[in-house]
């Protein structure tokens, strides 16, 4: 999925047909000079539309770190109110982009025995079990990180070690290689404290590494 969450398109794009709130995301980018809020729609073909965009000068954050929770929360509250008034909407979900200085990542691998109940044909349950096993092996160099992304690299069976989609294939075992991204725990807690002051719906925001959001 190649897109930038914060393309400077400040005009609302007309929506085609009936839109579901499930594919509408409100994303915050907390820069040291500018704080941005964008509304995006992700289509079934993974195309992304920017439906709304507002920004304000940054306050309460410096060099990507929260320096004043109350000041940053007040800045975000004003931004949210401006956005809702401009686009006549109510923000009910929240995604927050975080920079690389608070990110740690590592590769991991894991696997599972393919269930015999399906005649050793790989199912989505086998995929899930393999991925969860790989996640369980993750240990960041600094233990103060929480996992926010798991990026699949490839699968491996006794037939090939470069499988991209194992569903429906015959295999006795299924191994997977993943790249896991973690967010520094203290920074996550600071941001949660900030957003919890805005709305009850924001008490547990979704975090996304900005390098992935712009990839």
Task: Calculate Rg over CA atoms.
Answer: 20 Å
Helical proportion, percent range:
10-25%
Strand count, sense and barrel status of the largest sheet are:
5 strands, mixed
Low-confidence stretches: 1-21
* Mean pLDDT figure: 87
Net shape? elongated
Tally of helical segments: 4
Q: Give the CATH class of the largest domain.
A: Alpha Beta
N to C succession of SSEs: EEEEEHEEHEEHEH
CATH level-3 fold name of the largest domain: Dna Ligase, domain 1
Strand order of the largest sheet: 3-2-1-6-10
> Which secondary-structure class do the elements indicate?
alpha+beta
Characterization of this structure:
The protein is an alpha+beta fold and 215 residues long. The protein has two domains: 73 residues, ATPase, nucleotide binding domain (Nucleotidyltransferase, domain 5, 2-Layer Sandwich); 83 residues, Dna Ligase, domain 1 (2-Layer Sandwich). It is built from four helices and ten strands; from the N terminus they run E-E-E-E-E-H-E-E-H-E-E-H-E-H. The strands form three sheets. Strands 3-2-1-6-10 form a five-stranded mixed beta sheet. The protein has a three-stranded antiparallel beta sheet with strand order 7-9-8. It has a two-stranded antiparallel ribbon with strand order 4-5. Helix 1 packs across helix 3. The chain is elongated, with a radius of gyration of 20 Å. The N terminus is likely disordered.
């Amino acid at each position: 999925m190649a897109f930038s969450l914060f393309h400077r398109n400040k005009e609302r794009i007309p929506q085609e047909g009936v839109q579901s709130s499930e594919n509408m995301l409100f994303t915050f980018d907390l820069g040291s000079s500018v704080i941005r809020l964008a509304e995006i729609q992700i289509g079934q073909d993974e195309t992304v539309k920017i439906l709304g965009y507002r920004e304000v000068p940054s306050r309460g954050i410096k060099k990507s770190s929260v320096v004043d929770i109350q000041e940053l929360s007040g800045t975000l509250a004003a931004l949210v109110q401006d956005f809702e008034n401009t686009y006549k909407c109510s923000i009910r979900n929240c995604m927050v982009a975080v920079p690389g200085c608070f990110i740690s990542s590592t590769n991991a691998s894991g696997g599972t025995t393919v269930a015999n109940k399906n005649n050793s044909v790989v199912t989505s349950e086998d995929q899930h079990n393999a991925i969860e096993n790989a996640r369980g092996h993750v240990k960041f160099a600094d233990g103060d990180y929480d996992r926010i992304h798991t990026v699949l690299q490839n699968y491996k069976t006794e037939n090939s070690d470069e499988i991209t989609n194992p569903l429906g294939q015959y295999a006795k075992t299924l191994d997977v290689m993943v790249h896991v991204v973690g967010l520094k725990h203290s920074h996550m807690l600071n941001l949660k404290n900030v957003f919890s002051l805005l709305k009850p719906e924001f008490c547990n925001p979704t975090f996304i590494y900005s390098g992935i959001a712009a990839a």
